């Protein structure tokens, strides 16, 4: 089994309920044959460039352990998901679970509250 970090970006107009549904949907997929180590909701952030007519996106980040088939399954489903504009999965030999990319709203000048 390998370690993965997976981030997806939802459309800026998704409600909190829709975001929670996406998180639980993809958490369930990972849990079927893997183990979720950490889930982070980074919130609404500015995009560097416009993507599919969106200037902002809602970022969700997973750290998990599992097989390659999980990644293929997640990416296949995300590619046809209507509310998702981008996604990225990175494979690691080791994961640092203590590292948080957006641990403080004050420290990150790009963080915006809805």
Automatic annotation (TrEMBL):
Pfam families tied to this protein: Ribosomal_S6
Please give one Gene Ontology molecular function term for this protein: small ribosomal subunit rRNA binding
GO biological process annotation, one example:
translation
Q: Which InterPro entries match?
A: Ribosomal_bS6, Ribosomal_bS6_sf, Ribosomal_S6_plastid/chlpt, Transl_elong_EF1B/ribsomal_bS6
What GO cellular-component annotations does this UniProt entry give? cytosolic small ribosomal subunit
Enumerate the NCBIfam families for this protein: S6
Q: What family is reported?
A: Belongs to the bacterial ribosomal protein bS6 family.
Checking HAMAP family in the record gives: Ribosomal_bS6
Per its record, how is this protein called by name?
30S ribosomal protein S6
Recorded source organism is marine metagenome
């Amino acid at each position: 089994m390998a370690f993965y970090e997976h981030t997806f970006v939802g459309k800026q107009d998704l409600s909190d309920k829709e975001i929670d549904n996406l998180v639980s949907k993809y958490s369930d997929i990972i849990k079927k044959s893997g183990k979720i180590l950490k889930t982070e909701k980074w919130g609404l952030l500015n995009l560097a460039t416009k993507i599919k007519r969106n200037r902002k996106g809602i970022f969700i980040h997973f750290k998990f352990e599992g097989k390659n088939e999980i990644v293929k399954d997640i990416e296949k489903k995300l590619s046809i998901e209507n509310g998702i504009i981008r996604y990225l999965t990175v494979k690691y030999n080791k994961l640092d679970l203590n590292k948080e990319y957006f641990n403080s709203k004050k420290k990150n000048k790009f963080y915006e509250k809805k």
